[in-house]
Amino acid sequence: MSIIDTTKDLAALFELQAQATPDAIALEDEHRTLTYAELDSLTWSLADRLRQYGVGRDDLPTEDCRPAGTARIRKNLIDLGLWSDAMLDRMEIVPGNLARSRLGLSPEAFEELASRAQVIVHAAATVNLVYPYAALRSANVGGTREILRLASRGGATVHHISTNGVLPPSREGWPEDAMIDFDDVPTKLQDGYGQTKWVAEKLVVEASRRGIPAKIYRPGTISGHSVTGAANTYDLLNALIIESLQLGQAPDVPDWIVEMTPVDVVTRAIVALADHTDGQQLVYHLGDSKPIPSAALFDSLAELGYETGRLPWDEWVALWNEKRGSRGGGDDPFTVDILRGGMPTVDGLQGAIVLKDDATRPTLERYGVHRIDVDSALLETYTRHFFARGWLPHPPRRLTNGTASPQKKGRLSGKVAIVTGASSGIGAAVAFALAKEGASIALAARRTDALEKLKTKITSSCTPAKVLVHKTDITSKTEVDALVRATEASLGPVDILVCCAGVMYYTLMANVRTDEWERTVDVNCKGLLHCLSAALPGMLARGRGHVVAISSDAGRKVFPGLGVYSASKFFVEATLQSLRLETAGSGLRVTAVQPGNTATELLGMSTDEEAVKKYGEPSGARILEPEDVAGAILYAVCQPEYVAVNEVLIEPREEPI
Fold this sequence. Notes:
GO cellular component, one term: endoplasmic reticulum
Structural class: alpha/beta
CATH topology of the largest domain: Rossmann fold
Largest sheet: 7 strands, parallel
Keywords: Ligase, Oxidoreductase, Phosphopantetheine, Phosphoprotein
Number of helices: 22
Distance between the termini: 75 Å
Family: Belongs to the short-chain dehydrogenases/reductases (SDR) family.
Protein name: NAD(P)-binding protein
Helix content: 40-55%
GO molecular function: ligase activity; oxidoreductase activity, acting on the CH-OH group of donors, NAD or NADP as acceptor
Number of strands: 22
CATH architecture of the largest domain: 3-Layer(aba) Sandwich
Shape: elongated
Number of domains: 3
């Protein structure tokens, strides 16, 4: 049986006999049903979150015995650190089977359950990436149909837990409204699990169209609890990480990006969204929209005392087979058995399914749910749990100063920024300010000695901080392209590009300093274009990004003695205005920062003494410091995604234009 055979007529699956349905029902103070097939960390973290609402639960275990079901639930919750005896007072077990009609219940029991259930969180599925569609259809497709039938009887609201596996691999990311066409399912969704979940989603979408209140949640790759570290024991990614740390060697796989969304973040998101019925959005993405490069993951683990070398994939597999996989006896760690049972492939590691969350994230932030970055603090929690379970030979090096809670995140935590002209002046001040707010920074300039000093300042003052130093002459497109590639490989996709590199020469037009004219055009104009050409395509593909460029108040008004410089800044203004207008609606933000007189090295670059004497002498006013301009840029980049600070004119108070 194939997906094509079973879904030629999707309408045949909709025998719901739906009654008139009310508006969506919130979780609070309502009776609800939580379904599960496998007692995984997502289901039970969700159960733990729902306890806060004091709501009842009907669970559908595959056991036919209530005491056995209770014991199984208790065992798994103890393993996850979630059990409380008080849960028994709010728990009612209904033995059933997702793969059967009416969930395996008698007609009377089914109708009685339907009459009481007001909110259904459908987290049940048979998860197997090897089984074909036919083997999973009854539980995953048929079970969803029966859940919708149950909801239709009494007007319950359905919260359907789906998966990123309903979409093909994409590093650029899928928006919330993405759903592939039926004809593409057999070829673009290679495993039966993803195919069954795709059909299940179509059922929920159609049920919603017919009037059943419903929401669909697509998690990504779910990792352990951000506080306790408790995780799915049989997780393949955890096994791969643990075995790498045991070997002291990590796989070096190009374009392998790692998504690890803490389970408690996913469950908080589901509960928050389920408890608010004001939105019209049907599908929500709960994965990490910014996975990190695998190299960055192992670099962070090295900070915790788990240093690893790097080996190409085939060499890593050969070494693992020699040192770990071929050992005999029954005392092998569980992670060895996991990899023996299904070693991933390079294609599998590179085939990430990234979920954009542009529509979901603002809603969650409004409800107080924020994504947690995969950084050293989170990995410390995970590795401490791994050690406690006996999976690692020693505990991690403590990075949280002995406290139980991680350090406060900055407003730009998880963001990646490139700053050109970072060796001094405004560029150095901007880089430091962004790093203080948690951004990972790529420092670009020609003077690497100055960049290394700035890196030392950042890493000693901003903990934890990830800083890349990259020698770059922005007049060379080749070097700028290499800068962006190196940043993405080491730190991740670029979120913020701050173009600070520039030159300024006081010179009279009549003195014809053509070398300084050409240098001004090369750096201020062509340099900006090189930066845009390297970073812009990735930002547009991901549907978000922020371009900031240092213009000048001379880009708004021509100053005598600065004719060519003013012309170059008029060029910057025109370029940014065009970019802003042409990309409106793409998720890109474009900010032109127009400083007045600022205490930087620019003031000492001029060689035309006549021009300096006539137009460049100090006025006596207190001029700006680089940190003043950096503060304005920080304000712009820290605004909510929907807010665009298009221009910032910042000048000494006594020197307005």
